[in-house]
Design brief:
The complex is a heterotrimer of chains A (55), B (90) and C (100). With 90 residues, chain B is α/β, with parallel strands linked by helices. Chain B contains 3 helices and 5 strands; from the N terminus they run E-H-E-H-E-E-H-E. The chains are: A alpha/beta (55), B alpha/beta (90), C alpha/beta (100). Chains B and C meet through helix 1 and strand 5 of B and helix 4 and strand 5 of C.
Chain lengths: 55, 90, 100
């Protein structure tokens, strides 16, 4: 499964553990919205991933 | 077709819990995960949780202080999240 | 794709606007529901003007707006003054939902 994380802040300990767990058997992409300004790329990743988690 | 939605309640508990109750209005499946902290003892929180109980919604937590919810480890929660259509961290 | 954007803060306007326009340009539809401090954006034309774009539907939680004293008088026709029912609709109809 492909999972996209959209980060709006530094990951806390809980999110790090969730991400670590997801990485074991999934393809994980992390986008930091504080530095990512290419909205076309963001939309394409949202569309192409199975799950999106905004944090 | 029903959607399956996970609401992850973090620091803004009152609004997160209110939303979780509110989005049940179209008969989608809404499960609630209270993360990292005990639910604050407020009138609004108590009312929303009581409503969830009446609607037989699933309430999970990774915080053992929430004694009236089903405890799961953070890793178990991570696994369950992949079964939802939408994941809404609040 | 129908993209839902749950706007529950007023901190990410640039991304809301940018993602909405980028999604439309790729043929997607966008559904925006604002609540909590996200309703403060109703006072900003850069946010409310999104309603004018083909393929965008917008609504907000009147309870939140009233509780926060948001001035929604200037909100355009077509932006639905609603409730969590509109949020439920967004989540029911959208293929993907992001939270900003």
């Amino acid at each position: 499964m492909k999972i996209l994380y959209l980060l709006k802040q530094d990951p806390d300990e809980t999110l790090k553990r969730i991400m670590d767990e997801h990485r074991k058997a999934n393809e994980v992409t992390v986008l930091d919205l504080r530095t990512e300004g290419d909205h076309g790329r963001i939309v394409e990743l949202i569309a192409s991933n199975d799950k999106v988690i905004s944090w | 077709m029903s959607r399956k939605i996970a609401v992850l309640v973090r620091d803004r508990q009152e609004e997160g819990l209110r939303m979780a109750v509110g989005i049940t209005l179209l008969d989608d499946i809404i499960d609630v995960y209270v993360l990292d902290r005990k639910v604050e003892d407020t009138e609004k929180n108590a009312l929303n949780i009581e409503t969830m109980r009446e609607m037989e919604m699933n309430l999970y937590t990774n915080c053992r202080e929430n004694e009236d919810m089903e405890y799961l480890t953070t890793e178990e929660i991570a696994g369950k999240l992949l079964g939802y259509d939408h994941i809404l961290p609040y | 794709m129908k993209l839902g954007i749950l706007v529950n803060t007023d901190r990410h306007l640039d991304h809301i606007v940018g993602i909405t326009k980028a999604a439309l340009s790729r043929g997607h539809e966008v559904i925006i529901f604002s609540m909590d401090t996200g309703t403060r954006l109703l006072e900003n034309p850069a946010f409310t003007d999104l309603q004018k774009l083909d393929g965008v539907s917008m609504s907000y939680c009147d309870h939140s707006a009233k509780e926060l004293g948001v001035n929604a008088e200037g909100v355009q026709e077509g932006i639905v003054c609603g409730s969590q029912y509109n949020n439920a609709e967004m989540n029911h109809n959208a293929d993907k939902v992001i939270v900003l």
